[in-house]
């Protein structure tokens, strides 16, 4: 049931990209251009590990379970330790 084949989900439904390409374009421009290129977004005092912990905490706060699952390995790669991940969860 999971996965895609020929742009369709296995249940025969079209993907969001096919169904609403305008939304995908808007979202992609926002998330991968405007947010990361916002003045101050790449502040030198905010390292990748600290930024990752802030993102993890935010995802917990907004109940973004799927996004958290995708972000966790990225956070670990940026230098966040498993102990720090647990602390973020505890504090959230």
Task: Provide an overview of this structure.
With 92 residues, the protein is mainly α. It has two domains: 1-42, no CATH class; 44-92, no CATH class. The protein is built from five helices and two strands. The protein has a two-stranded antiparallel sheet with strand order 1-2. Helix 3 runs parallel beside helix 5. The chain is globular and about 40 Å long. The model has no long low-confidence stretch (mean pLDDT 83).
Précis, in short:
This protein is mostly helical.
Could you name the key traits of this structure?
92 residues, two-stranded antiparallel sheet, globular, mainly alpha
**Alpha carbon gyration radius:** 17 Å
Q: In total, how many beta strands?
A: 2
Q: How many helix segments?
A: 5
Structural class of the secondary structure composition?
mainly alpha
Total domain modules? 2
The order of strands across the largest sheet is 1-2
Q: How is the secondary structure organized here?
A:
Elements: E1 4-5, E2 8-9, H1 16-19, H2 21-34, H3 48-61, H4 65-77, H5 82-91
Antiparallel strand pairs: 1-2
Helix pairs in contact: 3-4, 3-5
């Amino acid at each position: 049931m999971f996965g895609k084949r020929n742009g369709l989900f296995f249940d025969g439904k079209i993907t969001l990209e096919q169904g609403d390409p305008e939304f995908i374009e808007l979202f992609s421009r926002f998330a991968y251009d405007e947010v990361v290129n916002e003045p101050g977004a790449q502040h030198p005092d905010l390292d990748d590990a600290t930024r990752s912990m802030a993102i993890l905490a935010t995802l917990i706060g907004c109940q973004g379970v799927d996004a958290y699952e995708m972000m966790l390995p990225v956070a670990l790669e940026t230098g966040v330790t498993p102990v720090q991940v647990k602390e973020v969860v505890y504090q959230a």
